[in-house]
Amino acid sequence: MPNYDYKCQKCGHVFEVFQSMNDPKLKDCPDSGCDGEVKRLLGTGAGLIFKGSGFYQTDYRSDSYKAGEKKASEAQSPKKEGKDTKKGKDSKPAKSSE
Prior knowledge:
By secondary structure, the protein is an alpha+beta fold. The protein has 1 helix and 3 strands.
């Protein structure tokens, strides 16, 4: 149930009422001694807060998709090679001590 803001047209009193959307609009000012008519004000509404998981596309990924993405990212990352296993065009044969 939302909060509605009202303003009295006669005395200028602004107040807030917690009421159902199906309830009729208020017509009379709640201040004692004022019999003015009230109008409902347009509000910006309440802020929307997302808490917990499930609000991002990646939160709904299946386990098989996550496993496939992990394999793909591992395949794209450069592998570290040691000095002994690396052979290139510039490598020279070891000198023999004869």
